C-alpha cells in the first residue's frame, strides 16, 4: 500500500488488491491496460454472480414464479403447464 499525497488515502500498488481496485485516472488505463481489463472483468463477474444469487434467494426464480402462477390458477394461453417453467427459464435469467 502507498499513501497518497492528497486526501490521506492508501492505494494498493501490487498483488490481487491492485487488480481489484479501479484505475485512478484515464492515464492509468493507458499505462496499464491489463489492470483496467481485469478490473472491468472483476466488476462484471461480481455483478453477474450477485444477480444470479439474488434471484435464487429472493424467490424470483422461474421455478418460484411458475409455482406462484399455478397457485393463482393462471396459465399462458397456448402452453401446457409443464412448458410454463421452460418459457419462464428463457426470460427470468436474461432479465437478471
Provide a short characterization of the protein structure.
The chain is 66% helix and 4% strand. It is mainly alpha-helical and 96 residues long. Helix 4 (62-71) crosses helix 5 (81-95).
Q: How would you describe the overall organization of this protein?
A:
The protein has helices at residues 15-20, 26-31, 33-58, 62-71, 81-95; strands at 2-3, 10-11. The chain has 96 residues and is mainly alpha-helical. The mean pLDDT is 84. It has 5 helices and 2 strands, in the order E-E-H-H-H-H-H. The chain is elongated. Helix 4 crosses helix 5 (81-95). A two-stranded antiparallel ribbon has the order 1-2.
User: What is the succession of H and E elements?
Assistant: EEHHHHH
The average pLDDT score comes to 84
Question: How many strands, what sense, and barrel or not for the largest sheet?
Answer: 2 strands, antiparallel
Strand content: under 5%
Distance between the termini: 36 Å
Shape: elongated
Which class best fits the helix and strand makeup? Answer: mainly alpha
- Helical amount among residues, as a percent range? 55-70%
Return Rg in Å.
Answer: 22 Å
- What's the arrangement of strands in the largest beta sheet? 1-2
- Compute the number of helices: 5
User: What are the segments in which pLDDT stays under 50 over at least 5 consecutive residues?
Assistant: none
DSSP E strands, number: 2
Amino acid at each position: 500500500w502507498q499513501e497518497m499525497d492528497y486526501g490521506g488515502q492508501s492505494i494498493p500498488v501490487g498483488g490481487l488488491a491492485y487488480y481489484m481496485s479501479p484505475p485512478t485516472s484515464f492515464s492509468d488505463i493507458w499505462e496499464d491496460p491489463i489492470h483496467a481489463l481485469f478490473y472491468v472483468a472483476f466488476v462484471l463477474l461480481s455483478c453477474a454472480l450477485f444477480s444470479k444469487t439474488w434471484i435464487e434467494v429472493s424467490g424470483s426464480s422461474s421455478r418460484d414464479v411458475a409455482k406462484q402462477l399455478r397457485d393463482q390458477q393462471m396459465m399462458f394461453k397456448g402452453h401446457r403447464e409443464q412448458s410454463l417453467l421452460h418459457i419462464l427459464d428463457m426470460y427470468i435469467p436474461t432479465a437478471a
